[in-house]
Design brief:
37% of the residues lie in helices and 19% in strands. It is α/β, with parallel strands linked by helices and 235 residues long. It has a single domain, classed as Carbamate kinase. Helix 2 crosses helix 3, helix 5 packs parallel to helix 7 and helix 6 packs antiparallel against helix 7. The longest helix has 25 residues. The chain is globular and about 50 Å long. The two termini are 19 Å apart.
Length: 235
């Protein structure tokens, strides 16, 4: 399969990683590690930003001050990063874990130059802890990390096939939108991808592909431009 984008950043939300077996679902982690491994074998250079909603979501912790809640959420993404790294290594995929909240012996600090070198050498780089700052979503972190490693696209793994003019889970008549400019996405007020993230992508000409990721081969299809909805991009 011909790849439309060779170097990409994959954003995997915590909701996608959670499942029937609990917050850290073995089946989900194994599946996405396999998807990443197949994409790498096809020639893709990949970085991954993991969300943390399956472990802890800051906004859902009203008994904590917001800043502390966001930090707990960022630490949740680090847990996901550690687990995803283990599943990648188990499948023979070299993986490097970087965290905006580094932990000695667990995850090293974010270093875009080292990350680019690792990706070019065939390793998958996992970015955890968002940007390290409260009040910034992991979607925004995904765009920032993508720009820092010179990725050609952000691939947003989702539970829906792409963008719609209404919520397809509530409205079966919602119309699928195969492509929108960044400006159109922002004007419509869509929320599949955080609007701040899309605004940064727009400023830097970075396309974002939203795709349903739970089918075997979906990541390769996304990298080939054969699946999902595209925000921005040329051609």
């Amino acid at each position: 399969m011909s790849l439309r984008w060779k170097r990409a950043l994959l954003k995997i939300s915590g909701e996608v990683l959670g499942g029937k077996e609990g917050p850290l679902d073995e089946g989900a982690f194994s599946f996405y590690a396999g998807e990443i491994g197949r994409a790498r074998e096809a020639g893709a250079e990949l970085a991954v930003v993991v969300g943390g909603g399956n472990v802890a979501r800051g906004a859902a912790l009203p008994f904590l001050p917001q800043t502390s809640g966001h930090i707990v959420g960022m630490l949740g993404t680090l847990l996901n990063g550690v687990v995803l790294r283990e599943f990648l290594l188990r499948k023979g995929v070299p993986a490097l874990l970087m965290s905006a909240l580094p932990v000695a012996g667990v995850a090293e600090p974010v270093d875009p130059w080292r990350a680019k070198e690792a990706m070019g050498s065939g390793s998958v780089v996992i970015f955890a802890a968002g940007t390290g700052d409260p009040y910034v979503t992991t979607d925004t972190a995904a765009v920032i990390r993508a720009l820092s490693v010179e990725a050609e696209v952000v691939l947003k793994a989702s539970k829906v096939p792409g963008l719609y003019d209404d919520d397809p889970l509530r409205n079966p008549e919602a119309k699928f939108l195969p492509r929108l400019s960044h400006r159109e996405y922002l004007a419509r007020g869509l929320r599949v991808m955080d609007q701040a993230a899309v605004a940064i992508a727009q400023e830097n000409g970075l396309p974002i592909l939203v795709f349903k990721a739970d089918k075997e081969g979906a990541l390769l299809e996304a990298l080939s431009g054969k699946r999902g909805s595209l925000i921005g991009g040329e051609g």
